[in-house]
């Protein structure tokens, strides 16, 4: 009886240690990374259940790119603070002020991750945000309505707030060249690895189930150590 109890304790402790050693991953994104019930209350979502087949065939959270990556890499989800339509800059659609949902505004809500995946810039492109100049300090609020200063501010704050955390930036395909090149340049400045996605199947400009799988297959190698 005592041996059985000891074996049970050792097994339970081993499982606890394994769980503690698994990487905790947080997602900071826009609509591509949303799913109803898996993002903070109040954040707008694109993917939900029951599915609207006129918009997408993604009907289950297990079909999302981030769920597939975290599951297949053997990681744990720490936080997913994604918000449909959110921009990195404060410039939103129809010249609206999107500072309330901007990436840097949601940055403090990512918990205590080992890895952060930032997937943004799409809505900055689609909403017509101005690029602005390359700028790496002394950011004013007005500066943050431009993409380049806003991204620099975001990455700077991410590194300050989450020291010793691995940060990756995912770049959507199909964005205008200036957005893509600016993103790469600013990521290089902060020594943050980036991944430029390709061959993502989409419907209504958003990944289908096939597109989600394509994203996950491109992101997963980042976790191979």
Protein model, in words:
- The protein has 225 residues and is α/β, with parallel strands linked by helices.
- 34% of the residues lie in helices and 14% in strands.
- The protein is built from seven helices and seven strands; from the N terminus they run H-E-H-E-H-E-H-H-E-H-E-E-E-H.
- The strands form two sheets. It has a five-stranded parallel β-sheet with strand order 2-1-3-4-5, with helices on both faces. Strands 6-7 form a two-stranded antiparallel sheet.
- Helix 2 (65-72) crosses helix 7 and helix 5 runs parallel beside helix 6.
- Mean pLDDT is 92; it is low at 1-19.
In brief:
By secondary structure, the chain is α/β, with parallel strands linked by helices. It is 34% helix and 14% strand.
- Beta-strand residue percentage: 5-15%
How many distinct beta strands?
Answer: 7
Shape: globular
User: Which stretches are poorly predicted, pLDDT < 50 over at least 5 residues?
Assistant: 1-19
User: Which secondary-structure class do the elements indicate?
Assistant: alpha/beta
Radius of gyration: 19 Å
Please bin the fraction of helical residues. Answer: 25-40%
Distance between the termini: 41 Å
- The ordered string of helix (H) and strand (E) elements is HEHEHEHHEHEEEH
How would you write the strand order of the largest sheet?
A: 2-1-3-4-5
Largest sheet: 5 strands, parallel
Mean pLDDT: 92
Number of helices: 7
Can you give keywords for this protein?
two-stranded antiparallel sheet; 225 residues; alpha/beta
């Amino acid at each position: 009886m005592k041996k059985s109890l000891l074996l049970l304790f050792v097994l339970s402790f081993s499982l606890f240690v394994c769980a503690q050693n698994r990487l905790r991953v947080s997602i900071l994104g826009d609509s591509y990374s949303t799913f109803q019930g898996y993002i903070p209350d109040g954040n707008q979502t694109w993917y939900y259940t029951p599915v609207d087949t006129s918009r997408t065939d993604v009907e289950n959270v297990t079909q999302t790119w981030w769920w597939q990556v975290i599951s297949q890499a053997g990681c744990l989800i720490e936080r997913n603070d994604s918000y449909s339509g959110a921009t990195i800059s404060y410039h939103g659609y129809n010249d609206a002020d999107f500072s309330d949902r901007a990436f840097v505004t949601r940055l403090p809500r990512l918990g205590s991750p080992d890895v952060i995946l930032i997937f943004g810039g799409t809505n900055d492109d689609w909403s017509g945000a101005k690029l602005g100049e390359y700028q790496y300090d002394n950011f004013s609020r007005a500066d943050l309505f431009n993409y380049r200063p806003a991204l620099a501010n975001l990455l700077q704050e991410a590194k300050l707030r989450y020291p010793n955390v691995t940060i990756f930036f995912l770049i959507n395909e199909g964005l205008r060249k200036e957005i893509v090149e600016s993103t790469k340049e600013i990521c290089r400045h902060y020594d943050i690895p980036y991944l430029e996605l390709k061959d993502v199947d989409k419907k209504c400009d958003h990944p289908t189930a096939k597109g989600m799988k394509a994203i996950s297959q491109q992101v997963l190698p980042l976790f191979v150590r």
